[in-house]
Write a structure and sequence with these properties.
about 140 residues, alpha+beta, Alpha-Beta Plaits, four-stranded antiparallel β-sheet, 7 helices, about 40% helix, binds adenosine-5'-diphosphate, binds magnesium ion
Length: about 140
Amino acid sequence: MASNKTFTMIKPEAMAAGHAGKILDLILSKGFRVVALKYTRLSEQEAGKFYEVHKERPFYGELVGYMASGPVLAAILEKDNAVQDFRALIGATDPAEAAEGTIRKRFAESKAKNAVHGSDSDENAAIEGAFFFSGREQY
Ligand code: ADP
Ligand code: MG
């Protein structure tokens, strides 16, 4: 059965640029409900663990350094078909390929600094949500 939750982070460059409010507003306007929300910063070690699936990729070191470079806004979101619908809302990894109206098209700086994270499966949404939030931080 498909879960109705996904996990997101507004990434450091979008936070630094002051886009958090607009991005969150857009997410809420598309029918996602906030289950959990946290302003926090990853250490390099934590960023390395979060992105462990990419550790063989050439951009892993850059990605880890970038994600630990400043605070992020982490959230668990709820909606029917959450994972797929949220991936559609954020758009392609590379903003140059992202569709008009998507978060990455509007707010991403580059393929690396692409404004937001979105889980790619129900299984990873659960793992990633639990990485940031305890049970009593989710409502
Ligand atoms: P997505 O975030 O769209 O699921 P991936 O899971 O493939 O994309 O990659 C994770 C993150 O790694 C991306 O969001 C982006 O920040 C970074 N990244 C992906 N590909 C590259 C690349 N070729 N060069 C630099 N950073 C990249
Ligand atoms: Mg991914």
